[in-house]
Design goal:
Layout lengths: L7 H4 L8 H9 L16 H6 L2 H6 L5 H25 L31 E2 L3 H4 L18 E2 L4 E6 L2 E6 L4 E2 L4 H8 L10 H21 L5 H20 L6 H7 L4 H17 L13 H12 L15 H4 L5 H4 L2 H16 L10 H11 L1 H7 L7 E2 H7 L6 H8 L5 H11 L6 E2 L1 H7 L6 H19 L17 H4 L19 H12 L10 E5 L6 H14 L5 E6 L6 H11 L10 H9 L5 E6 L6 H19 L4 H5 L5 E7 L10 E5 L5 H11 L7 H7 L4 H13 L4 H8 L9 H11 L3 H10 L8 H7 L7 H13 L4 E3 L4 E3 L2 H13 L5 H23 L3 H10 L1 H11 L8 H15 L5 H18 L2 H17 L3 H19 L4 H16 L3 H19 L4 H16 L3 H19 L4 H16 L3 H19 L4 H16 L3 H19 L4 H16 L3 H19 L4 H16 L3 H18 L5 H16 L3 H19 L4 H16 L3 H19 L4 H16 L3 H19 L4 H16 L3 H19 L4 H16 ...
Parallel strand pairs: 1-3, 8-11, 8-12, 9-10, 10-11
Antiparallel strand pairs: 2-5, 3-4, 6-7, 13-14
Helix pairs in contact: 7-8, 8-9, 8-11, 9-11, 9-37, 15-16, 19-22, 20-22, 24-25, 26-28, 27-28, 30-31, 30-32, 32-34, 34-38, 36-37, 39-40, 39-42, 42-43, 42-44, 43-44, 44-45, 44-46, 45-46, 46-47, 47-48, 48-49, 49-50, 50-51, 51-52, 52-53, 53-54, 54-55, 55-56, 56-57, 56-58, 57-58, 58-59, 58-60, 59-60, ...
Length: 1450
């Protein structure tokens, strides 16, 4: 292949500075490259330089020869430009080549035909082994003089770094180590300053290369090259920090890097010393940052470089501090850095995004403006419309251009949305972007991958050929599409290459998951094996095979290590799919799985060896739910498919079976001595014929073989020492794996052994910064931490994931380290304190997001460190160091709103008590008060309000004595106690506490602070419950004014205030203004959250309830249906909020006496709640009670009574026997027993309900009046009229005292008393009561209200019984007239009025008229209410009397 034909204007312009148009021009200048224009659309020069064979495959270039041609041509041009730059660019010393020629890294004689190693670039694994693979990487260099060598060793640079492999007739280009450092690691593009230091390192590496080649024996080279790789990698990572985000802050802090450069120099030179070489004296580096400090001081410091108004850096003055190459893009670099610094200093949802470009874009688009205007921390949910208004044009210029050429029309936007969305499909969150747009992948390329995947798999899902039986029989019709397919995003861990012998297990697992045609395909495969057998490794490799053959669309990974409770288990499953929620309710996860149920996906679950029966139950329960969600429905696609759409691999020590689910077990056997011996020989060839003996010592475990082989290859262990150590009687009781781990750990130098034992404190994965804190290394020594962690990783004692940038220790290694620490008597108390302190600060950061109304982002941050955070919670009850108490105290006081959602109630209670005991022991009064306050909150959450009151009062007293009466913490304590008193109906006490909290907060924070507004909002809710509606309205409106001023008129908190005022206005009968408030609230939410957000659905429900109250049933029904539709789409058909919509809609239909239409909705609601929560949840009891109410109205008393009994049983277990909800259920059960004619059984239930309400509310509470009326009704049925009348009169007195004599509720008591007096034949007083009730209702509710109509009908019944038939007919016709106008002629309540009139006509002897109107009413009633309804029975009785009169007359 010839040299590139660059056009003149591109030849003089470094590729790194090419725009996307430059790339397009370059492609057009080459006929052979022009065909790639579409795939590389929008690619910049910088991105072109980073393109690898794998990326080219993912963006659609399928032919490997075409990929090789493109990469080679590009590299030719880069080499040509570097040669030109070496001569012309004297301002950039890093680009200058050393004066003396650099020897190529071949044999000592530099002959390409010798047996020495050859260093090659971008060489695939399959090519190393001499095999062919059409999808393998091609050569990424452009020299046409390729060299061939048929024997010997070669050093290869591939994606994993430098490695020594046997040569098997492959060809490659010999290059120098200097080229490796400068080209492969791109140091010349980095280091915005200290460029001379970078060049000195490269020169040092060139010297070292010559020393290694000239003076080292061939046998020793593999070990030296491994050490050299470590040194070069560390240099590369350190230098890379100069181009990462935050380089500007290095200028501001003026931190010296001289010590670090010198340390790295010594590290490089020490490799040569190991080879028997003695280099010259250590080179002294120029401390550029010291000179920088002098220059900055001379200018007056960093402030002198900033514009006084904009605070941006003055670019001309800054240019002297950066290299020549950086000056060309200095303006954009500085602008990006300033914005990045501003965003990094602020708390907000953008913090969760790891991709720096996307993170900065979110902050600029949705965070900074809100912060400047209202002090808000931004929003975490935005509509896709808002997203596209800023994306991608709001990104940095170069990235925006490249992404815009990938996502350029409506179709590509829709594909992108489908690939990104993991929650509400109408919204996008930072969490979804963080999961789908990783940090270490070019943004435009990742977008292209997302679109390719979505397009490809949609095509695959429509292809019948995709339903093949297994990975060995992928249909040829799929090949064109499948070649482009790559999984979009997943949570699979990074694993090493399969070892010898494990290929058999991988194929066995594949055969179990995808058996031959004719055999049943399992839904669950239990992959069993001992610790260290490589279960997860094999499962992940099998998953990658399945989705590369398109039998799985994607695969996910859930790690149950250190999980104990159902709450933790639920969150782990949600984290596996990146579906985040602020509670352990998995409905969001099930909804997402349901939306993806047309695509086959896999789930790998890692179960710990010591998994408890409790955890096993939670794991299998969640797996069963997911599988059943996927199975539900019967679309055509699902019917056509011959294998499950969700398959689960459970990696465990023992087989796991799930009843009702197709499960199979695949057990891993030890690899066997022969396979382990081959593994050892491939890693450490020097062991020779002792491999079998060593393999037996490893016990057939891959982990042991890897660790021992690596130690032998690096020279840190000797064969005889290994064999002697693992055979020692002192470790005879241990498994061979544990013996090997213990030996490898014991051979570490003291520094590394100490570090490893400290790192074993981490129960799960951890970040480098957390490790640095634990190891006592400052943040400026992260490179030293990186070096230490890399060495432990090389020894297979740690594993590193480049995707998540986290380390993890194998459970067997961790157990060995902890055991060794105990034997050595090392408690590491100070390290544990550091550990607790670090994660206390981390929790505070996440809790700040929760307080800023970003719960999803807060939970995502928590998920990253959940195992480590749960560890410090466990430590609290295990005697933690005394120094840890202040941090535990801070967690209880500041972070529990976040942590409480991730712990079950028992864990929270144990945690609070443990911290309290520590505080008592250390006599820390503030910590005692905080622990007591949190304990009271836990008891309150359990519904134990009486038990919660005592610790909350004690906490308030302690905190007040220690902090003073006006401390802000006192306001928080007052608010917490007020909530409990409110639930205990101690309203005055709660009001006093709220008032005190308000006084403290307003004086400390100002009267318009958001915390003050929250306290006022709670106070208004209390006033409303106390019946002080006017006072509550004043407070609610004040809160609204504060929020509008502080947050802006379109904030969702403003919408919440409007909603609260509307609820209050509805209660007081101000329907028109309430409707206006609801409408405005909905408009704000639709604008802020989009028209299809669940919050909008909530407001629609509230407005519908108001319209229902206003007798606008048709409008209310439409709103209920819209709310239901929103929730089904956003949350899935099985979400509890969907059940709530069913209940609301059914309630409307029931109020309109459309009972048969309401029945299926109540049944659906109950079914959803039972599946979502289980059969014993309080919300299930609420659904049972609603359904029982309807069945009672339908006359199905037996079914209704059975549901009441079930609901009471649930409530008594969950909230206690004396809860007011139990009282309501008892009253309903009593009514059902009345309907069954069992009044004597109903009486004790009513008396118990009355007693509960009196105990809860007090004897004179309006809530007691309802229970009095119910008991009076039962006693009336038992003919105990005297006691019944006394109870009814007591109910009337209570309501007159509570609400006044003209209140509608007082009128209701008058109406009830009138009916009782009628049955007791006290007709005159009954008539008086009815007329008084009519008068009140007409004045308060209007003459045409339905309540007035009901009383007219009751009066008609009293007058009929008194023989005042003309007045009775007039009263009944008054009722009929109102109901016909309000409800129409076909309503069952209208029929009830007709029955009343018919009864009067019959008494008047007008039999024919009576029969006509009764027949019409009976027909309507039978159709709509059923024959068993009481109204139907009444109509039938009156008709029967009509027929009897006709017979008598005849």
């Amino acid at each position: 292949m010839g040299k590139s034909k660059s056009v003149p204007d591109l030849a003089s312009k470094a590729m790194v500075f090419w725009t996307s148009e430059d790339v397009k021009q370059w492609l057009k200048e080459h006929e052979s490259l022009n065909k790639y224009t579409k795939q590389l659309k929008g690619t910049t020069g910088k991105e072109l330089m980073k393109l690898t064979d794998d990326i080219l495959t993912q963006i659609g270039i399928k032919n490997p020869l075409h990929r090789m041609q493109l990469i080679n041509t590009r590299d030719d041009l880069i080499a040509q430009q570097e040669q030109d730059t070496a001569v012309k660019d004297t301002d950039s010393p890093i680009m200058s080549k050393p004066a003396s020629p650099t020897p190529s890294f071949v044999t000592p004689q530099h002959s390409p035909k010798g047996k020495g190693p050859i260093l090659m670039k971008s060489f695939s694994r399959s090519q190393m082994n001499g095999t062919s693979n059409s999808s393998s990487s091609g050569f990424s260099f452009g020299d046409t003089s390729l060299r061939r060598s048929k024997e010997g060793n070669m050093v290869v640079l591939d994606d994993d770094g430098l490695s020594v492999v046997p040569m098997k007739g492959v060809q490659g280009k010999a290059i120098s180590l200097v080229e490796v450092i400068t080209e492969a690691y791109g140091l010349w593009k980095q280091a915005y300053y200290n460029a001379s230091n970078c060049e000195a390192l490269v020169s040092c590496a060139a010297e070292l290369q010559g020393l290694v080649l000239a003076n080292t024996s061939l046998a020793a080279r593999p070990t030296l090259m491994a050490n050299l790789l470590e040194a070069v990698t560390e240099v590369k990572e350190f230098i890379a920090t100069f181009s990462e985000r935050g380089w500007l802050s290095r200028l501001e802090k003026v931190s010296s890097d001289k010590e670090e450069f010198c340390r790295l120099d010594r590290l490089l030179i020490s490799v040569a010393v190991e080879g028997g070489n003695q280099p010259g004296p250590e080179q002294e580096y120029t401390d550029d940052t010291a000179e920088l400090r002098k220059q900055l001081d001379a200018l007056g410091g960093m402030a002198a470089l900033q514009d006084p108004e904009t605070q941006l850096l003055a670019l001309p003055d800054l240019e002297q501090f950066v290299s020549a190459r950086a000056r060309a893009v200095l303006a954009s670099l500085v602008a990006q850095e300033v914005a990045w610094r501003q965003s990094s200093l602020q708390t907000g949802p953008h913090q969760v995004i790891r991709n720096p470009e996307v993170r900065l874009w979110w902050w600029r688009s949705f965070g900074s403006a809100l912060l400047q205007t209202y002090g808000s921390l931004g929003t975490e949910e935005i509509t896709w419309e808002r997203f596209w208004s800023s994306f991608p044009k709001g990104l940095e210029d170069e990235t925006a251009s490249s992404v815009a050429q990938v996502i350029y029309n409506k179709h590509t936007k829709e594909l992108f949305q489908a690939a990104i969305s993991r929650g509400n499909p109408n919204l996008v969150t930072p969490v979804e972007l963080e999961f789908s747009l990783p940090r270490n992948i070019n943004l435009a390329q990742q977008c292209q991958i997302l679109l390719n995947w979505e397009n490809s798999y949609k095509t695959l899902s429509r292809s019948a050929g995709r339903m093949g039986s297994g990975p060995r029989s992928t249909g040829s019709t799929l090949s064109a599409v499948a070649e482009e397919y790559r999984p979009v995003v997943n949570t699979l861990p990074e694993v090493t290459q399969l070892l010898l012998g494990q290929e058999r297990h991988c194929q066995g697992l594949l055969d179990a998951l995808q058996p031959d045609q004719g055999q049943g395909v399992p839904q669950v495969v239990s992959l069993c094996g001992a610790p260290g057998a490589g279960k997860v490794n094999i499962a992940v490799m099998a998953a990658e095979t399945l989705f590369s053959s398109t039998l799985w669309c994607n695969a996910y990974f859930a790690d149950m290590e250190r999980v104990e409770t159902g709450v933790e288990c639920a969150f782990q499953f949600m984290a596996a799919f990146a579906v985040t929620a602020d509670t352990s309710d998995t409905c969001n996860l099930m909804s997402w799985i349901g939306r993806w149920s047309a695509y086959p996906i896999g789930l790998i679950v890692h179960c710990p060896p010591d998994m408890t029966a409790r955890l096993l139950k939670h794991v299998t329960h969640n797996v069963e739910k997911m599988i059943k969600i996927v199975q539900s429905g019967a679309t055509l696609l699902r019917i056509l498919q011959t294998h499950p759409l969700l398959q689960v691999v459970l990696c465990a020590s023992e087989p796991i079976n799930i009843p009702g689910i197709d499960c199979v077990t695949y057990e891993l056997e030890d690899l066997g001595v022969d396979n382990v011996a081959q593994i050892l020989t491939s890693i450490a060839p020097q062991i020779g014929d002792r491999a079998q003996e060593l393999a037996e010592a490893c016990g057939g475990r891959p982990l042991a073989a890897h660790m021992v082989g690596t130690a032998l290859a690096s020279g840190t262990a000797q064969l005889e020492e290994v064999l002697q150590a693992v055979a020692s009687p002192a470790v005879a009781h241990l498994h061979p794996l544990d013996r090997c781990i213990r030996y490898i750990v014991s051979t570490l130098p003291d520094e590394f052994l100490h570090a490893l034992l400290l790192l074993s404190l981490f129960p799960g994965s951890f970040e480098r910064r957390a490790a640095a804190e634990l190891l006592g290394m400052t943040s400026t020594a992260l490179s030293k931490t990186r070096s230490l962690l890399r060495i432990l990783t090389t020894c297979n004692l740690l594993q590193y994931s480049s995707t998540s940038e986290r380390y993890i220790m194998h459970a067997s290694v961790r157990a060995c380290c902890r055991s060794l620490a105990r034997e050595l008597g090392l408690t590491y108390e100070s390290a544990r304190v550091t550990f607790i302190e670090y994660y206390t600060k981390y929790l505070a950061k996440a809790a700040a997001l929760l307080a800023a109304q970003a719960p999803v982002s807060a939970m995502r941050l928590f998920d990253r460190e959940h195992q480590n955070i749960h560890e410090i919670v466990r430590w609290a009850s295990q005697g933690p160091p005394e120094e840890a108490l202040p941090f535990y105290s801070d967690i209880l006081w500041e972070s529990m709103p976040l942590l409480s959602g991730r712990l079950d109630l028992l864990q929270r209670e144990v945690f609070c008590k443990a911290v309290y005991e520590q505080a008592v022991e250390q006599k820390d009064r503030v910590a005692q008060g905080r622990a007591l306050w949190q304990l009271g909150s836990v008891l309150g959450d359990q519904g134990q309000f009486k038990n919660a009151e005592v610790p909350l009062r004690d906490a308030l007293a302690i905190l007040e004595s220690e902090l003073g009466s006006d401390h802000l913490d006192i306001a928080k304590a007052c608010n917490g106690l007020a909530v409990v008193l409110f639930r205990l109906h101690q309203y005055q006490g709660a009001q006093d506490l709220y008032a005190r909290a308000y006084d403290i907060q307003s004086s400390k924070l100002g009267p318009e602070d958001k915390e003050v507004a929250t306290t006022m909002n709670n106070t208004a809710g209390l006033l409303k419950a106390m019946g002080k509606l006017a006072d509550a309205e004043v407070v609610y409106r004040t809160v609204l004014d504060i929020r509008e001023k502080e947050l802006g008129p379109d904030h969702v908190d403003v919408a919440a205030s409007l909603n609260n005022i509307a609820v209050l206005l509805k209660t007081s009968g101000q329907f028109e203004e309430a409707e206006e408030m609801y409408t405005r609230s909905i408009a704000i939410k639709e604008k802020a959250l989009g028209p299809n957000h669940p919050q909008v659905a909530l407001s629609l429900n509230n407005l519908a309830a108001l319209l229902r109250k206003m007798i606008k049933g048709e409008q209310a029904e439409k709103l209920y249906m819209r709310s239901l539709s929103i929730r089904e789409e956003a949350l899935g058909p099985d979400h509890p909020q969907v059940a709530a919509s069913y209940v609301n809609l059914a309630g409307l239909l029931k109020s309109e006496n459309r009972l048969m239409e309401a029945l299926p909705y109540f049944n659906k609601a109950l079914d959803i709640r039972e599946r979502a929560y289980g059969p014993d949840h309080p919300d299930v009891s609420a659904a049972q009670i609603s359904l029982a109410e309807l069945l009672k109205d339908l006359g199905k008393f037996e079914e209704a009574e059975r549901l009441c009994r079930s609901a009471i049983n649930i409530l008594e277990k969950s909230v206690g026997e004396d809860d007011v909800n139990v009282a309501a259920a008892l009253s309903l059960q009593a009514t059902c027993l009345q309907g069954l004619g069992k009044a004597t059984e109903a009486e004790p239930l009513c008396r118990r309900a009355l007693n509960i309400r009196e105990q809860a509310y007090g004897a004179e509470s309006p809530n007691v009046a309802t229970a009095l009326t119910a008991l009076a009704d039962v006693l009336k049925e038992m003919s105990s009229f005297e006691e019944a009348e006394a109870l009814a009169r007591r109910s009337l007195v209570i309501r007159e005292r509570s609400f006044g004599s003209d209140d509608p509720l007082t009128a209701t008591s008058l109406n009830n008393l009138a009916l009782l007096l009628k049955d007791a034949n006290h007709l005159e007083e009954a008539e008086t009561m009815c007329r008084k009730c009519i008068d009140i209702r007409q004045r308060v509710l209007g003459e045409s209200s339905l309540e007035v109509a009901t009383t007219w009908l009751n009066l008609g019944g009293v007058l009929r019984a008194a023989g005042k038939l003309e007045e009775a007919e007039s009263a009944c016709r008054q009722c009929l007239d109102i109901r016909e106008r309000q409800l129409g002629s076909q309503h069952t309540d209208t029929a009830a009025a007709q029955i009343g009139i018919g009864a009067v006509l019959l008494k008047q002897g007008r039999v024919d008229e009576a029969k006509t109107i009764l027949s019409k009413a009976a027909t309507l009633t039978f159709v709509k209410l059923g024959e068993r309804h009481q109204q139907s029975l009444d109509a039938m009785n009156w008709l029967a009397e009509c027929k009897s009169c006709q017979r008598n007359m005849g």
